[in-house]
Amino acid sequence: MDDRLKVLYRPDLVPPPRWEGDHNGPEVWERTPEEEEEFLGLLGEAEVLYDFPRGHVGDLTEVAPKLRWVQGSMAGAGEVARSAGLVETDVVVTTASGIYSGPLAEFVLMGMLQHAKDLNLLRRDKANRTWRQGTTGTLERKTLCVVGTGSIGRAIADRARPFGMRVVGVKRAVSESDAAWGSFDELYATRNLPDALAGADFVALTLPGTPQTEGLFDAETMAAIKPGAFFANVGRGKVVEEAALVEALESGHLSGAALDVFEVEPLPEESPLWGMESVVISAHTTDVVPDLINAAQTDLFCENLGRYLAGEELVNVLDKRLLY
Questions:
Q1: Which end of the chain is less crowded, N or C, counting CB atoms within 10 A of the terminal residue's CB?
Q2: Is residue 322 part of a domain?
Q3: 284 is an active site residue
Q4: 265 is known as an active-site residue
């Protein structure tokens, strides 16, 4: 261990994990006044933070005046960095981008395969002992539009293409030298989003939460999607206006959905989405794979800590202008 390091770790002062690898803890939890005083003392000394401290995101710059770097545990740390007031500071924020890509991509592929093969019908027929013969669907020769071509978007594309799918991507700006060309058959700039959606049998969103993406998928954008398409969102819930999504599903304009994120979380009990057989719902936990994620989180932080101590550029530095 580097002699310059002083590790401050008090697990009794942070929310207890609900499961292995849980970084949030129970919804209802608070420190005693004595614990709060101790915790503030630790924050006051901290130059480096692993993750954003619960209860002190809004006043982080005040309670941690020595802070120079925060390693977030989430892939999309832009929203919380902005809430913490770090965007206008010199504090470096790094994200866990890339760590969750595989599990999230698997969720999207699971949803698409289940939909294409009409797994709900197969389950009903099995439960009713019904021998039903007829046609089925496939992913082969279908078009998937991935909106957001970062690590998650590329992971989805790389898994979909072996199924024989044509995969197009949508990103903020496109150049001939763009690395995303290695994963996509065609790339569209965001300004041409309606053109990309019009030819897609499946649509997958992986967008971060930023002022530019909030509400991007409203009624007008939903209407641009090819009728009968399947919709998936593993990015940020506020990218989609949920009322527009519900309307598109109820009207049949969208044939189904696989959703890991929502405009309001937890998803309210009265949401019509709960009652839709064609909708797969995950409680924003489809990327919780402890045996994979915990090791990757540890490796990333240790790599960045070594770089920080050596004065080198860190991995996954948040762009404070774009917020991803």
A1: N
A2: no
A3: yes
A4: yes
